[in-house]
Amino acid sequence: MGYQDTFEGFMVQSQDDWTNFKKQEFKPKKFQERDIDIEIECCGVCGSDVHTISGGWGGAPMPLCVGHEVIGKAVKVGDGVTTVKVGDRVGVGAQIWSCLECKPCKTDNENYCPKKIDTYGAPYPEEMGGVIAQGGYASHIRAHEYFTFKIPDNIPSEEAAPMMCAGLTTYSPLVRAGVGPGKKVAIVGVGGLGMYAIMWANALGAEVYVLSHSPDKEKAAKELGAKEFISTVDKDWDKPWAFTFNFMLNTADATHKFDLAAYLGTLDVNGQMHHVGLPDKPLPEIKAQMFAPNGCSMGGSHIGSRPEMFQMLKLASEKKLKPIIETIPISEDGCKKAVLGVSKNEVRYRYTLTDFDKAFPNR
Hints:
There is one protein chain. The protein is α/β, with parallel strands linked by helices. The chain has 9 helices and 17 strands. It starts with 6 loop residues before the first strand and ends with a helix.
């Protein structure tokens, strides 16, 4: 066996032992006419990977190869593929399939398709092989062309990888909210998501304010484009900022500790607090009265669409935007180091796993 019958990946066997990765073979989905096989060059490490393998988001099929920030080279394309050719450098994010026929799919909202398949941990129907989707800590990935994206030449692979999930997850709600010149935007949290949110909001022309409980991140926040850094550990931090922000993007993983009324009170009339950080624990208790003083609202979103992915990559390419990335060579120990670093909030600000040729020399 071996490519093309099986791929090889670093897999977790149990949520009770979620930092222990073992390299093993797995069977990919059935190859179909619009599929692309990608030889992986590098893969970002997302908070979703940790939430999934640790059980924070509930049960998951095991053994499991996570990773949904994939960059690599197309090595096989189906007969129906028109957008990618063999040899192209491409990326894959957190979604790998949708029906492309329902109302969301036909309105550039395929990320909300009720039949969508996540890049890892999701079952494929029997006509596609009936296997569990496996992610990018692997030798290869097999993806539908609609969820495969050509990467601009001037974006290094290790920087492009985290854009596939973290980048898109923050870009999409910002552009859907009309963020741009004349808007004041608050970004909550300076981490793997917050870094991109600050960068995008500034590049889109908005006035960017960062709300954080980590004062040591002020320098990085301003380097990424923040005008002001607001420390939320200060008493009555919110009072000077009442009725200020048109839009607030919450990227934090500790929302269960928030005084939501304080955050909501900084929004302008009809402003929105939008959540893309998806922590293990529920939100604090919410009362309807909390939305009344300024007519504010709360919402959330799931990644973004194919057109938004290309818009985001174009913005990053044209403005030469540079995220803050740490690289780790992929191995059993490397995967462990990466997920522990994310879990303990030690990463600054995103990990990318590299050196896949050394880890998979026979592919």
